Amino acid sequence: MIYLVRHGQTKWNKSSIFRGQSDIPLDETGYRQAQLTAYYMKEKNFNHVYSSPLSRSFETAKKIADAKGLEVEIVENFKDISFGDWEGKELEIVKSEDPKNYFTYRNDPEKASFPGGESLTQCFERSYRSFYNLILNNKDDMVIVTHRVIIKMILIGILNLSLKAFWQLQVDTCSITEIYQKDMLFVLRKMNDTCHLEDRDSLKPDF
Predict the structure, then answer these.
(1) Burial of 87 (0-12, 13-18, 19+ CB in 10 A)
(2) Which of 31, 68, 92, 166 has the most C-beta neighbours closer than 10 Å?
(3) Is 81 exposed, middle or buried (0-12, 13-18, 19+ CB in 10 A)?
(4) pLDDT tens profile 12-54
């Protein structure tokens, strides 16, 4: 089984600020979400915990790994997308300052690119390639702790979807998505499960 876990909440999540590759730590709610996720995952079978190098993912992954007596293994290409000039800016400011690129991001994500950063296509190529190579070389059950965009890229890859589907996939903070392999195919068993978290109604939607 492959468990895809999104990191816990940060202050920038709560304030609708673009995070990308800025290294923003978990906030108090995020730490609590990570603890609850670790407690829930302790009963699952897995031998590896992989993480993005960014602290919000690593801190979440370490809670999960510590509960099982495992070490966190860093995968650089599971780092969040680079939003470039948008990083550190609130959603409404980006919409006002860069309406053309924001419109493309919301309506034609397969064509989206971010000034000074990556395109969604570039992000897909690096993250899904790393995911596929990791699975190809490791048949053990595992947890991958990463970011909303990266989990979406993995799901788009395993389901053979177009990047047009980007906004049709929801990935909440500290949600768990389960995948397994059968007959050389990836099968999506469970998606965006937040049953282990408190106050799920307060989770912020994608932006």
Answers:
(1) buried
(2) 166
(3) buried
(4) 998 899 999 999 999 999 999 999 999 999 999 999 999 999 9
- Rounded Cα distance between 158 and 161, Å, is 8
Q: Sketch out the chain's domains with CATH numbers.
A: 2-81+119-202 (3.40.50.1240)
Gap between the Cα atoms of 172 and 167, Å rounded: 13
Euclidean distance between CA atoms 186 and 184, whole angstroms: 7
Reported pTM: 0.95
Answer yes or no: are the C-beta atoms of 186 and 158 closer than 8 Å.
Answer: yes
| 23 to 19, 26, 56, 100, 156: CA distances (angstroms) | 8, 10, 7, 27, 25
The tens digit of pLDDT for each residue in 121-174 reads 999 999 999 999 999 888 899 999 999 999 999 999 999 999 999 999 999 999
